[in-house]
Design a protein that fits this description.
about 325 residues, alpha/beta, Arginase, Chain A, eight-stranded parallel beta sheet, two-stranded antiparallel ribbon, 10 helices, 10 strands, metal-binding, Formiminoglutamase, Ureohydrolase_dom_sf
Length: about 325
């Protein structure tokens, strides 16, 4: 049994946010979408939302941002739990079958209508379908998608390897899809050709060695947001190096570092075009003993909140 967390009134823990009240306007809404049944790799990713919620309580909501100003660093402090109204809508039930997926999308659409940002906790990458559909709602033809992922996710069939293809078939314009972090030895010629033929913008993993991350994020937002509709972001944690994300079945050596994915999450959430973010492909039961992958997923929630607070000028 894990030891109980210490209590210090001067160091309040985050997480454990309340459920939303009827018709309440909020800043950030969290919802679990525990998809796992169609995973191409053996996975218990349905257990991850609860693990992430537990991991959130290891952290505070205190943020210090440093901006270069006249050659000197200017610090700004934010306490997210004071600056933002954050709610937790619980988990969707059985989101892997057709009915459950539709109900999950409807629940996310209701949250998106009364929040600035919806953060969906997976679950494997199949959750990106209901998450993006819910965020887009009736504006799907004008919406955009940004993925941070080692994989194209354009496979045939219905699995955690097919969400991007399924969203395109549902009406998302592939010219407003940007895939960041696509890796060698993790895809195939057939699916790369499919991405090219569809007009998907692909930013290969190697480009992140050579270009500033802020420039890549800016380019992705301009492409995904070109239709004037909402942008959904898929943070597939298997884009990270395997040493960072051993709890992701498909992570490989040579991926992003934790600080890169955390910074991307904050930058993306800081843009008003982004209305939804999902955190995918973490299997809490396959994590390292120190829980590093689940803890990274929890920090991605907080980075998204920090970006939102900066967006809102809090």
């Amino acid at each position: 049994m894990a030891p109980a967390l210490s209590h210090d009134p001067s160091w309040p823990r985050t997480g454990a946010w309340p459920a939303p009240r009827d018709d309440e306007r909020v800043d950030l809404a969290l919802i679990g979408v525990p998809t796992w049944r169609t995973s191409l790799s053996a996975s218990n990713a349905h257990e991850t939302p609860a693990a992430v919620r537990a991991a959130l309580q290891r952290y505070s909501s205190h943020v210090v941002t440093v901006a270069a100003r006249d050659g000197r660093g200017a610090e700004t402090e934010i306490v997210l739990d004071e600056a933002l109204r954050i709610v937790d809508a619980g988990d969707c039930a059985d989101p892997d079958d057709e009915r459950g997926e539709q109900e999950a999308a409807a629940a996310i659409e209701r949250l998106a209508a009364r929040s600035e940002l919806v953060v969906a906790l997976g679950g494997d990458n199949a959750l990106t379908v209901p998450a993006a559909l819910g965020v887009a709602g009736a504006r799907l033809p004008n919406a955009g998608l940004i993925t941070l992922d080692a994989h194209h996710d354009l496979r045939d069939g219905r699995s955690n390897g097919s969400p991007v293809r399924r969203l395109i078939e549902a009406g998302l314009d592939p010219r407003r899809i940007v895939q960041i972090g696509i890796a060698d030895f993790a895809n195939s010629h057939a699916y790369r050709s499919r991405a090219q033929q569809l007009g998907v913008t692909v930013i290969h993993r190697d480009e992140l060695h050579e270009r500033p991350l802020s420039d890549i994020v800016s380019e992705a937002l301009d492409i995904a947001g070109a239709g004037g509709g909402p942008v959904h972001v898929d943070l597939d944690v298997d884009v990270c190096d395997r040493s960072v994300a051993p709890g992701c079945p498909a992570s490989i050596p040579g991926g992003l570092q934790a600080h890169e994915l955390r910074r991307a999450a904050r930058l993306l959430a800081g843009d008003a075009r982004v209305r939804g973010i999902d955190i995918a492909e973490v299997d809490a039961t396959a994590d390292a003993p120190d829980g590093r992958t689940v803890r990274l997923a929890a920090l991605l929630v907080l980075e998204a909140a920090a970006g939102l607070a900066q967006r809102l000028g809090r």
